[in-house]
Amino acid sequence: MSIKIKLSNLVKFRVKGELNDENGNKQPVDFSLTCERRPADDWKDVFVEGEKLSAGFAKITKGWGDVLGEDGKPVEYSPESLEQLFCIPGVAQLAYVAYVTESGVKAKN
After folding, report:
1. What is the C-alpha separation between 36 and 87, in angstroms, rounded?
2. DSSP 8-state secondary structure symbol assigned to residue 104
3. Three-state secondary structure call for residue 82
4. DSSP secondary structure string, 5-64?
5. Would you list the domain boundaries of the chain?
6. Burial (CB count <10 Å: 0-12, 13-18, 19+), residue 33
7. Which of 101, 103, 94, 98 is nearest to 19 (CA)?
8. Which helix (H) or strand (E) holds 101?
9. Phi and psi dihedrals of 104, rounded to 5?
10. What's the predicted TM-score (pTM) here?
11. Of 3, 26, 47, 72, which has the highest C-beta tally within 10 A?
């Protein structure tokens, strides 16, 4: 099998984790992001040292899925709503790891 040098400009990936509720029960965190696929050399311009991860994701995120509001209805993507989502501790870090993992080549199982 070969590899094409030209890749899609976008990558869609899942962000998954768990969050403890007030009773200590684990609640799933599971949503998708669609982001620009940037060359590795550009990452330093997207995720700038000293800036919040949400600022970097605001530059490259084009949409999302499975993000619901308190009323259980889908929340439309906007940089402001992304900032609100990323205020939940650990979400920005999970998204970053998922982006790094899913936007590039990884070993096949």
Report:
1. 22
2. S
3. helix
4. SS--SEEEEEEEEEEE-TTS-EEEEEEEEEEE---GGGHHHHS-TTS-HHHHHHHHEEEE
5. 10-23+33-102
6. buried
7. 94
8. helix 91-102
9. -125, -175
10. 0.86
11. 47
